[in-house]
């Protein structure tokens, strides 16, 4: 029962992360300003920083792909119930959580600006990593 609840929580959080990342990706691809007055307008500063892309690919697009992969992986697991697929999902989430911590540190100490949507995606990444640890302990 706890395992299923954890899996559904990861699926729900990943869906929110996917939607958040799609919004950011569309804003960036359309060169539209990202409004987030809650953080003093830092979204555009973060989105236009040199840290906002890896080899030319916006981090928001990588977020879309990451969360889509997790959603697809969980869907596969729910259909097949293979331990290996669950392990792959958990390890992917651990990587995502560590990367999210790195991105938050960049905002805090290097860019010195905050993007609300980025913080949401990163918080989801960290929460999912913690849930992944829980899943790995339940094996």
Layout of strands and helices, then pairs:
Blueprint: H1 2-29, H2 42-47, E1 53-54, E2 57-58, H3 59-80, H4 83-111, H5 116-138
Antiparallel strand pairs: 1-2
Write up this protein.
By secondary structure, this protein is mostly helical. The chain has one domain (2-138): VKOR domain (de novo design (two linked rop proteins)). Helix content is 78%, strand content 3%. It contains five helices and two strands; from the N terminus they run ααββααα. The protein has helices spanning 2-29, 42-47, 59-80, 83-111, 116-138; strands spanning 53-54, 57-58. It has a two-stranded antiparallel sheet with strand order 1-2. β1 and β2 (57-58) form a beta hairpin. α3 (59-80) runs antiparallel to α4 (83-111). It is elongated and about 45 Å long. The model has no long low-confidence stretch (mean pLDDT 94).
In brief, what are we looking at here?
Residues 3-136 form the Vitamin K epoxide reductase domain. GO terms for molecular function: oxidoreductase activity; quinone binding. With 139 residues, the protein is mainly alpha-helical.
The CATH class: Mainly Alpha
Across the major sheet, the strand order is: 1-2
Assembly state here? single chain
Q: SS-based structural class?
A: mainly alpha
Q: What is the terminal separation in angstroms?
A: 13 Å
Shape: elongated
Pfam families: VKOR (PF07884)
Organism: Candidatus Wolfebacteria bacterium RIFOXYD1_FULL_48_65
Keywords: Disulfide bond, Membrane, Oxidoreductase, Quinone, Redox-active center, Transmembrane, Transmembrane helix
Subcellular location: Membrane
């Amino acid at each position: 029962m706890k395992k299923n609840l954890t899996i559904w929580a990861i699926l729900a959080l990943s869906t929110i992360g996917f939607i958040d990342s799609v919004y950011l990706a569309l804003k960036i691809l359309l060169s539209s300003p990202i409004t987030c007055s809650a953080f003093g307008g830092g979204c555009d500063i973060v989105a236009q920083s040199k840290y906002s892309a890896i080899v030319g690919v916006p981090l928001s697009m990588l977020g879309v792909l990451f969360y889509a992969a997790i959603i697809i992986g969980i869907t596969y697991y729910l259909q097949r119930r293979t331990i290996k697929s669950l392990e792959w999902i958990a390890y992917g989430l651990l990587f995502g959580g560590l990367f999210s911590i790195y991105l938050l540190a960049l905002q805090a100490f290097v860019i010195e600006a905050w993007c609300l949507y980025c913080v949401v995606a990163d918080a989801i990444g960290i929460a999912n990593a913690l849930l992944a640890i829980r899943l790995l302990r339940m094996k």
